[in-house]
What we know:
This protein is α/β, with parallel strands linked by helices.
Amino acid sequence: MNILQIKSSARGAASHSSAIADDLVLRLRLGHPHARLTLRDLNATPHPVLDEAALGALFTPAANRTPEQAARVALDDALIAEIEAADVVVIGVPMYNFAVPAQLKNWIDAITRVGVTFRYTEKGSEGLLKGKTVYAVLARGGKYRDTPADSQVPYLKTIFSFLGITDLRFVYAEGLNMGEQAAHDALTSAHQQIEEAVAA
């Protein structure tokens, strides 16, 4: 098993989403002692935003790219290679202003490339990252699960399904900013959900 872990929290070592994701990875490795882990910490090494220069580089044929354009595309290529090689992806997803962190959005933009991770056919789009499992650890200060305020889950389901990944499993840690008891309950519940998600 090849495991790719994505950390997207700006809180570093204080991150709940990263800590719970670490525990999930540990649980996976207990069942697969020889699993290989690749860690991508988007806070420690932020990925650049998809801007005009990046789009220009991506839409320029490889043979015609400037050295700067080639270097920019290579940054995205590295992230694509990591997820292509992964059997399992574990993503820490804190909620920032009801959305995913900007650094996670930059990663998603980098791995979503036509002709590489998805393609268009006469029948519509086809995701090319098939046969993978994604675990998303959702850490929230409040409680938003199954409410209209939760924009993260629909977005993640849409983008990963678009890329061909339909085995998407969620672990929720909610109410982390609602008092000490609520935070304790949230973390206890998250660890119970890890066992259920891994066993599914």
